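Internal ticket #5521
Category: modeling
Description: The requester needs a full-assembly model to guide mutagenesis choices. All entity lines are attached below as received. Residue total reported by intake: 432.
Assigned to: D.W.
Attached entities:
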Amino acid sequence: MISRPGTKKPLVRQNLETRVHTLVTKRTVGDARTGNILVKGDCLAGMRALEDRLMEKIQLVYADPPYNTRRKGRDYDDDMDPGKWLTMLEQRAVACRSLLKPTGWFFLHLDANGLASAKLMMDRIMGEENFTFLVTWERTPKLTFLGQGASPIVRNTEFILVYSKNRKKRTKLKRLTRDMEATRKVLRQYNLEVVRDKGRLLIEEDGPSGKPLSVFEHDNFSVKSISHDKRLACFDRLYQSTRINPSSTLQSRLAKRSRQGHLYSVRYTPDRGKRAGREIEVLLFNNRQLWPAAENAFIRHGKIFRRVDISTLWTNEEISAVGISSQGGVRLIRGKKPEELLERIILLATNPGDHVMDPFAGSGTTPAVAQKLGRKWIAFEKSDSVEKLILPRLKRVVTGQDKSGVMYRNQEYAEQCFDYIDLPGEPLPGKP
Ligand SMILES: C[S@@+](CC[C@H](N)C(=O)[O-])C[C@H]1O[C@@H](n2cnc3c(N)ncnc32)[C@H](O)[C@@H]1O
């Protein structure tokens, strides 16, 4: 039974049993049943109706409700009273939470209008301790031409609240990186050219991860600073110097055993941090560590690029809403999200085969991307966008014909099917 966290009281008192019986599978698109489901109807009624099938099955909820911009739209209305909007969202968030696996994640996408009230509401429902990130997405570029638009400050950001269902049981979000051309400021850190011989083995022992750790001393070497314009040509010998981390017993122990003016290289496999499980080589020189530029950077098109972790600011250069109107071959006038945004979210929070659920599917971006990435999906949409946009889009995706947006990870993901369910019935309390 879908209920508020910590209570046995049903979320919606009205008896919905009859509605469950009227849930009919209209048709299956494709050859075989895969568990992918598109439901036309209010997502709250849909989640109640599918409760037995979906309870604690969902690894990721991505919810992108109307933001309550107070505008009437062509595809959907977005002008509810703010109190009613929040109640509508709260009831659906409670239902989503019930269907989430204990390991699962809830991403709620909003603009600045509802962010503050929705954050407090989500803290109550998901538990403040499960709030993990607030992502700011720079939807469009910062630059507009002078006089464009009525607002003196360009509104170009949206927000995603990220909650786990249970912080003790949640799966770790995946580590995703992005490639950035290294700026002059960044390259300034890579200011050493190191030339060295193969080295003499000095120490061989068990490293922190149980794998071998070897220390070599180099008799023939040079360490010299290098000018900016030579960095590209010397990339293989380019190093950055950082201080020894005093809280690392391994680094402090090796530093203590090293002599001033001598160069050592240490090969080992860290058991913690972003390099965990991968054999690395770091140099020790005059009580400093020297890290090769190639550890974090690479050359592309004759320029040095760095691989950096993504942050809570998802910039327009990384993911842009510009030019997405024809993605999936369908147009949603307002609120359509880039496939690249859903790709990032799905990759962060799920593995292939996991269930992704979108209660406010709009033009069907989430199911389209989930399908291309080999995830199972359940999507709800109450408007005619189901027939106009989602069905044609998903038919193209499952038959492998969609060539826009995110690429299929594996062609077999394009040969599957989904059930399409039309959910008749009266509107539920809290319906917009
Ligand atoms: C912002 S749009 C979602 C856009 C979508 N993420 C995309 O990329 O196309 C919000 C959608 O939620 C739908 N919606 C609003 N209330 C709903 C409800 N109670 N149940 C199901 N869908 C609902 C609207 O019709 C609209 O299509």
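Resolution: model delivered.
Comment from assignee: The two ends are 23 Å apart (CA to CA).
Ticket closed.
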